[in-house]
Design goal:
Blueprint (H helix, E strand, L loop, with lengths): L2 H16 L5 H13 L4 H24 L3
Helix pairs in contact: 1-2, 1-3
């Protein structure tokens, strides 16, 4: 991964971490950032997949905890 790709991925990941609820403006920013950097689509897709995985684990832990 070159420095340009790394910088874009860090920016995308940071914005993705801010997405903690259904925020259309933030989703639009993430979409535009991905479109502007389509040459890094594989890396951006991996970031999205990792974030979904993290959120699923956190949700599962939350719902499985005793009341």
């Amino acid at each position: 991964m070159d420095s340009g790709e790394e910088a874009i991925c860090e920016e995308y990941e940071s914005s993705l971490e801010d997405l903690t609820f259904n925020s259309k403006p933030l989703i639009n920013v993430l979409t535009m950032l991905a479109e502007e950097n389509s040459q890094f689509a594989k890396s951006i897709t991996k970031l999205i997949a990792n974030r979904i995985y993290q959120v699923c684990i956190i949700s599962a832990i939350y719902f499985l905890r005793p009341c």
